[in-house]
Amino acid sequence: MKVFVDASLLVYLNVKMSDEEAELIEDFWLNLLLKHLLYTNILVLDEAIYVSRRKYGVPFRETIDFIDKAVLPYVSVLSIGLNEYLRAKKIMEEYCLNPSDSIHIATIENYGLQAVASEDEDFDKVGVKRLWIKR
After folding, report:
1. What is the 3-state secondary structure (H, E, C) of the chain?
2. Per-residue pLDDT tens for 105-135?
3. Cβ(13)–Cβ(66) under 8 Å?
4. Where are the domains of the chain?
5. What phi and psi, each to the nearest 5 degrees, are found at residue 114?
6. Beta-carbon neighbour count of residue 92 at 10 Å?
């Protein structure tokens, strides 16, 4: 399956967590890597860098190194352009989603992806299959 990787997963992979939580996240990531084709966009990478720093105090350089070594070799980065903007406008209005989530949905739709790996339940509003950790 073609799966869009959202920022929440990258942030959790990047920050310090309890051993139990880290194991759940790492197992989920490994399963995605082994069973699916993974995609994201530059906005997700931006969000992961920003949230890791702002919420968890991870220096920009550490997150950038994490993305370069643990994400980019395995996840294709899709371009965002005018078509994604035009679709995102409609999604924002129809589902009252924030701009970044709307751009992610537009990316998923425009590139024919089948699911999103995210803890963000806002994706459920638009009917995109959401993959997340089963607790």
Report:
1. CEEEECHHHHHHHHCCCCHHHHHHHHHHHHHHHHHCEEEEEHHHHHHHHHHHHHHHCCCHHHHHHHHHHHHCCCEEEECCCHHHHHHHHHHHHHHCCCHHHHHHHHHHHHCCCCEEECCCHHHHHHCCEEECCCC
2. 999 999 999 999 999 999 999 999 999 998 7
3. yes
4. 2-119
5. -105, -15
6. 17
Contact 100, 119 (CB under 8 A): no
Tell me: the pLDDT tens digits for 67-105?
999 999 999 999 999 999 999 999 999 999 999 999 999
- Cα 95 to its chain centre, rounded Å, is 19
Among the CATH numbers 1.50.40.10, 1.10.10.10, 3.30.40.10, 3.40.50.1010, which is that of 2-119? Answer: 3.40.50.1010
The tokens describing 55, both together, are 């919420």
User: What is the pTM assigned to this prediction?
Assistant: 0.96
Q: Are 104 and 116 in contact (CB under 8 A)?
A: yes
Residues 6+ apart with CB under 8 A from 103: 41, 43, 80, 84, 85, 88
